[in-house]
Amino acid sequence: MLQSLKDDIQGMVDDYEETNLPINDDNEKLRRFCERLEFLLKFGLKERSLVLGGRKDLWPYLCRCLEERRNIQEGITLVKANKELKTNTGRHRYFLRYCLLQCCLADVLQQCIADEASTLQFYDTGSLLLQPHFANDLVTSLYVLSDLTFDLALASSSHDLDVSWPAYARVGGASPWSRPPSRTWSLSSLCTRCHVNGHLNV
């Protein structure tokens, strides 16, 4: 699954370099990437209590890990303020798309995985995110996306993220959140990138 995710990333890189246009929801590789990333992030989530049933959700995990990270609070606030999102599934999808737009997806997930206490609270001990080699490989792969530009609609009315990932781009102008990567996103971003590239064998 991780290799397939890497193939999707390389496919988006090839498309971006060939067209010099932002990646949008018409790109089939983007949809496959989102579906695979979601699967990997949800794999190994713990069961809830017998009263609640089902498994724990990805969105509360992201909120828990990032609640004290001021550099990403804008994205968390946008999700919480969006009343059209009815499920935690829709909320984490919206947030992951926001991270793609802001070129900070790898940084955000790196920060979450580094919060070992929260990760152990939400994931089984045998989960993929708790395997250091897998987690490092995943984050390193995601950093490639920081050099791409995305044009993704965040208005919930453009697609029902509670149901599925978008399969086509909305009609209209560029997303108001679509912009070139901001290298001022966080100082910790640069530190994280140096740590990953300096300590991993890719």
How many separate domains make up the residues? 1
Query: Got a strand count?
Result: 0
Beta-strand residue fraction? under 5%
Overall CATH architecture: Up-down Bundle
Mean pLDDT value? 83
CATH class assignment: Mainly Alpha
Shape: globular
Give the terminus-to-terminus CA distance.
Answer: 17 Å
Helix count, DSSP H or I runs of 4 or more residues: 9
Q: What name is given to the CATH topology? A: Methane Monooxygenase Hydroxylase, Chain G, domain 1
**Unreliable residue runs:** 173-202
CATH homologous superfamily assignment: RUN domain
Largest sheet: none
In percent, how helical is the residue content? 40-55%
User: How are helices and strands ordered from N to C?
Assistant: HHHHHHHHH
Note the main attributes of this structure.
mainly alpha, 0% strand, Methane Monooxygenase Hydroxylase, Chain G, domain 1, 9 helices, 202 residues, 52% helix
How would you portray this structure in words?
With 202 residues, the protein is mostly helical. It has a single domain (2-42, 52-199), classed as Methane Monooxygenase Hydroxylase, Chain G, domain 1 (Up-down Bundle), CATH 1.20.58.900. Helices cover 52% and strands 0% of the residues. The chain contains 9 helices and no strands. The protein has helices at 2-19, 28-42, 58-66, 73-81, 88-101, 105-114, 116-122, 132-142, 187-199. Helix 3 packs across helix 6 (105-114) and helix 6 runs antiparallel to helix 8. Mean pLDDT is 83; it is low at 173-202.
